[in-house]
Structure prediction request, 591 residues.
Amino acid sequence: MAYDGLVVSATVKEFRETLIGGKISKITQPEKDEIDLTIRNQKDNYRLKISVNPSLPLCILTEEKKLSPMAVPTFCMALRKHIGNGAILNVIQPDQTLDKDGLERVIIFEIEHLDEMGDLGKRYLSVELMGKYSNLILFREDRTIIDSVKRISVSQSSVREVLPNRPYFIPDSGDKKNPLELDKETFAALIKNTPEPAFKALFHGITGLSPLTASEICHVSRVDPDLSANCLDPDALERLYNAFYSIIRETVSLSKPDPVIIYKDGVPSDFSAFNLSIYAEDTKYEVRHFSSMSEVITQFYSEKDKSSRMRQRSTDLRKVVNTLMERTSKKLNIQEKQLKDTEGMDKFRVYGELLHTYGYSLAGCEDHLTCENFYTNEEITIPLKKDLTASENAKHYLEKYDKLKRTKENVTVQLRETRLELEHLESIQTSLDIAESEEDLQDIRREMSDYGFIHKVQGKEKAKLQRKSKPYHFVSEDGYEIFVGKNNYQNEDVTFKIGDGGDLWFHAKNVAGSHVIVKTGGQNMEEIPDRLFIEAAGLAAYYSSHRNDQKVEVDYTIRKNLKKVPNAAPGFVIYHQNWSVTVEPNNMTEH
Prediction:
């Protein structure tokens, strides 16, 4: 993710607008690496969440409330002692030296506070958002550390000790340049002397730039990002500088951040403090704009965290489903081969019947019989076993025919069952992709248990699995209610319990997916607005196994045309009258 200096800069601007002049009224530490500050400013309360979790470092304004532990942690007590009831004088994003503004991934809160003697003093709270090196450090005006949420001894790091009374400084960034001080000549000299791709030269040589930002600069300047920087001509260097200067100026100097989240196939993949043109022409990506950087970070991490948490919780089910699908696919291939081997069985019946008819002409010990095939009136040659009589050869062929006939009958039944099982497993796999809550997973577990894919559970666990989640409920632009099943049991309920005979039913064509019911209120199809069909079909496409395709064909029909498939899994239906529409997968806001 692009949690770079520009994102921090946009966040700092929000803090300056809302927090400067405010007083810290409450300090809590709900997690070992997370601090919440409640700040009152001009009758408004703001909640500042600071997390230095290595996998989720952030500093944002939030409305989320977390319970505090019964025992107050040591660092929280130090904060309450030194900055409790303190006033926020300034919010700073420094450079390497701490003396000037820069684009380091560091936010420093300058706080005025009365000490134990009643004297005014200043304290500084430094939030370092540097991945696994993230930390939260409290220090004095003379830059000596008071305490930190993570204490780092010399045995842990030879670069910097983070302990009480040690000097505070920002770790060396490797001779990177402050982007706020780069002029055209210095920029060109820095880039053209770097023997690596242009986009790498940018984020390796300039503080605060991420690979994503560097790629955007190259894209805007029409410079090949993979071209070696020392091969760029003066014109390319000038275009590169102009694009760099424009982004830095608009995002930092002119106070015009335009926070965005980049969605790939409906899933958040990255975020930025400014609009990104690099994704504009790729239909797989969508750029959504937000009003604040805090809102972007909150939304991004909550969606990513939700997605990853659900995938983690469903790992055991996914493993079972994938194993069963592989096994069932292999079984299907074997059965299809067995069925193919029976394709020539009718010739053995013909051989047997012809031998019964013309066998009298054989003297014995022949290896073939040539005669007329009375089914086709053509000459035919029948291979024979020399050691068998004509009657025994006929019996051999008819027995072979009977065996293949029985095989075909049995394999045809098995094939149908195997294909239904594979379709069932594919539908469960799609349900796992759609699942958004623990209740959704419990529904899937219940289904897998009921159909023997996992061991049946007893007692409390069985009662737990009976808790049903609810299908999605949407309202179209024209006010029609739309229901979408998240799994097979819900598909069954949506179609045959929620849906009436005159309602509309939608489903992605020939693929696993959700049943979508539109409540028409008894209206005829001619009275229903066209855009409702597009909205409902878009949902059916989105909640299917082809949700990542650009276009998906969706079948729709009147609900009364549906019939349940005998002996099939829940939610499996057949229909013989339908219409189709091709749409882009599209989600809606749930009600």
